[in-house]
Amino acid sequence: MGALCGIVAAGAGLAAAEAAGLAARPEATPLVAVGGEVIDATPRPVKELAVSVLGTADKAVLLAGMALALAGAAALLGVLALRRPGAAGAGVAVFTAIGAAAALDRPDSGALDAVPSLLGGGAAVVVLWLLVARAPEPTHGQEPREAAESAAVEAPAGPGARGAGTNRRRFVAAAGAVATVSAVGGTGARWYAASAAGRGPSSARFTLPEPASPAPPLPEGAELDIAGLDPFFTPNEDFYRIDTVLSVPRIAASEWRLRLHGRGAAEREYTIADLLNRADLIERDITLACVSNPVGGTYVGNARWIGVPLAGLLEEAGVRPPGEGGPADQLVSRSEDGMTIGTPVADVMDGRDAMLALGMNGEPLPQRHGFPVRMVVPGLYGYVSACKWLVELELTTFEDYDPYWVPRGWAEKAPVKTQSRIDTPGDGANVSAGTVPVAGVAWAQHRGIEAVEVRVDDGEWQRARLSAEDTADTWRQWVLEWDAEPGEHRISVRARDREGGVQTSRESPTSPDGATGHHGVAVTVTP
Ligand SMILES: Nc1nc2c(c(=O)[nH]1)N[C@H]1C(S)=C(S)[C@@H](COP(=O)(O)O)O[C@H]1N2
Ligand SMILES: [Mo]
């Protein structure tokens, strides 16, 4: 009986929280907020395992698992409530606090975000106490019916006797009503929130301005239409995320400031409006890659960015590249969360589209990808160029300053290595004999991809067909129509860049400056 009270009360609390979430933010409801915290806190290997086993169902499974765990705890608290309602109330308060704390810790949150958890916790306690107070007495092993009847027989005229059956019916009716209202109200609120969320961003942040220099139109044939091949533009939801933060920094765009200072630079401070209103905004397609990407890995993605050309901003502050006598050779970017990233001033000012990015694939930077402002520098690994949640730029020297990763054994300078990856067929795949498209992506940012070659077993390297090149800063897709013969085969790929570099077969680890080697997949071809 107590367990039933607890579960019904928890359901009522969650439903109340969902309803309150419509007024506050749907992201702030306890299940969603705690789930988000769990995801943020999950170590990368565990997360990768979950994603590889569950795929896109990982979040649904997480939420269902949390609901189950909560039901278990609610049942225990309900049993406790029969004897000690106060202690059970304290238990509910603990869960309420967890929900509220998670909601307040979520990206973009405000004080209002605690409201759904607090209201939900309040509703749960009230329902729990009301139900427990009305719960029929335990019947000591007898069937409820018999208990009621025997009570009636023993005390035929007493009011308490008739009350036992009535109480039971009342209790069941009340619990059933609460459960029904909770289920309908809770799922209704969640459904409404989901449909409302589809209509537009829940928190208006800023509107992306029109760039003075838009990205050139994508050339025809830049995207090959092959099942299993990564899309040319990586959707923001799918873009890899690598950073050291457990909880994504929340920066209000209106409060954001960027300080520029250091050797050979006039000190400057910029607001978000300063950047948004600039007349020199550019829009560019740039492929970002992580130095921790293993050969064949997925820590690489391509996006259309909008931002302020970094070289122009530095020139306005009087900065000259070292080649022109400037005293600083390292630009250190600092983030809200204290990350430091060092980039060669020479690279930033050599004409490439290094930028302070505000937009990613047509929307303001997602919180996870550095809102409101991050750096993007074509051709350099993220850890030496792509500072997210940027708040400070300092001109210094490599001799004088080691940014975060350098004392941890990573290279001071790290241009992206020429790399290629087979997306389809997957490693270990079974395919039928005949024509099989072998396809993937190749990147050599800022040098450009010249050719991609594929080899089956110990055969000749064969030229793959390349997608049309967008820019030298973006990856290219490639495909080889393979005439697959029955048996076990190993397929490898290598890329050539525009500067004559050939992707080496020599295998080296990601540390200190990026993995090398050829990506290969083993495939079984059935007749
Ligand atoms: N503030 C901050 N910025 C950061 C990092 C970080 O840990 N903190 N990681 C860097 C690394 S290692 C990479 S590869 C890119 C990844 O950017 P993404 O998460 O948007 O894909 O961000 C870079 N910028
Ligand atoms: Mo990285």
Helices and strands in order, then pairings?
Blueprint: H1 2-23, H2 30-41, H3 44-54, H4 58-83, H5 85-105, H6 115-134, H7 144-154, H8 159-197, E1 257-262, E2 268-271, H9 272-276, E3 282-289, E4 300-309, H10 310-316, E5 330-335, E6 340-344, H11 345-348, E7 355-360, E8 363-364, E9 374-376, E10 390-396, E11 419-424, E12 429-432, E13 434-443, E14 449-456, E15 462-463, E16 465-466, E17 476-484, E18 487-497, E19 519-526
Parallel strand pairs: 1-10, 12-19
Antiparallel strand pairs: 1-2, 3-4, 4-7, 5-6, 5-10, 7-8, 7-9, 11-13, 13-17, 14-15, 14-18, 16-17, 18-19
Residues 239-244, 288, 290, 335, 337, 339, 369, 382-383, 386-389 line the site of the ligand Nc1nc2c(c(=O)[nH]1)N[C@H]1C(S)=C(S)[C@@H](COP(=O)(O)O)O[C@H]1N2.
Describe the fold and architecture.
With 527 residues, this protein is of the alpha+beta class. The chain has 3 domains: 2-198, no CATH class; 236-408, Sulfite Oxidase, Chain A, domain 2; 419-526, Immunoglobulin-like. It has 11 helices and 19 strands. A 5-stranded mixed sheet has the order 2-1-10-5-6. α2 packs across α5 (85-105). It binds ligand MTE and molybdenum atom. The site of molybdenum atom (MO) has 7 residues, from loops.
